[in-house]
Amino acid sequence: MKFFNFLVIAMFCAITSCTIDKTDYEAEIGSQVPEYYEFKEAVSFTSGIYKISIDALNGTFYKGYNELHLKVVNTQTNQDVTTSQVTFMPITTNADGSKSSCPHEYNVAYDATNKYYAGYSVFTGESTTTASWKLYVSFTADNQKYEINKDISVQKQSNKNLNMTAFTGNDGEQYFIALVSPQKPTVSENKLVAGIYKYNKPTTAAGTFPDPTQFSYSEVTGFTLKLDPRMPEPSMGNHSSPNNQDLTQQNDGLYHGVVNYTMTGNWTLNLIMMNQNGLILKGTVVPTDFTPGVEGVKSELYIDTLF
């Protein structure tokens, strides 16, 4: 019976304005939803005889989740430095001089298989005239520690399937959820991957800038991200889809689930975040009413997507 009701809803949407909206969305997809699968150099540093390069998708830092590949090369021997302790920290400075960071992997480990130091950064804002980003990188080579910094540009993420959100949980902690994949979903059941991070409030006084204890973030462990995807536009009636799976943490530290997109267009991922004990830290249940002509109600915690 539930499946039959869903078919009736889908047919109603198709009979009404769904066809026109879908055509418009398909035109938008072709020009505004890019896919990037090639890592290119986004920035490089030089200190003495050493060069540090950081590769990112499309050679660009974007607001949201960024997988990063760092390399340290001895320019005299052209050999990679593989045994160094490498640290990575992004800092943003606002017009009033205040400084903050974003979820990132501070101690990046060497990946011997792929021959780079693997890390990530979830940039929480774009570079603007009133907010600038700088990377602070350190490494050790030949028993000497090198510390380098360089200004970078963080660009707008034009792919809404890689959106992110930041919020304060019911426990008073600051959290961040960033979509990692898919970049470009299909009308089907899609594997949905997201990172969930928390700001670690400092417990000691600040030392010499940039003191990592003042800009520390961590991946949250053992949480559950309950998922209820809806099409909130009035013409869609806020209908959902079957066979979705809540997001749970896997061995890579990221949260994996399934989102079933039954047609192209605007979708809202309504979320409820629960901690290890099942306590709700953010999010509300979305009404199940089919509401054609009325914009759908969203959860207190949500991320919009479009494909």
What's the Cα radius of gyration? Answer: 22 Å
The profile of the biggest β sheet is: 10 strands, antiparallel
Task: Based on Cα principal axes, name the global outline.
Answer: elongated
Mean pLDDT, all residues: 90
Order of helices and strands: HEEEEEEEEEEEEEEEEEEEEEE
Number of helices: 1
Percentage of residues assigned to helices: 10-25%
Q: Which structural class do you get from the secondary structure elements? A: mainly beta
Strand % is over 45%
Give the end-to-end Cα distance, rounded to a whole number of Å.
29 Å
Low-confidence stretches: 1-31
**Count of strand segments:** 22
Summarize the entry for a quick read.
The protein has one helix and 22 strands.
Description:
The chain is built from one helix and 22 strands. It has one helix at 2-32; strands at residues 39-47, 50-57, 61-62, 64-74, 79-80, 86-94, 99-100, 107-111, 116-123, 131-141, 144-152, 154-155, 164-168, 174-181, 189-200, 216-219, 224-230, 245-249, 255-260, 266-274, 280-282, 301-306. The model is unreliable at 1-31 (pLDDT under 50).
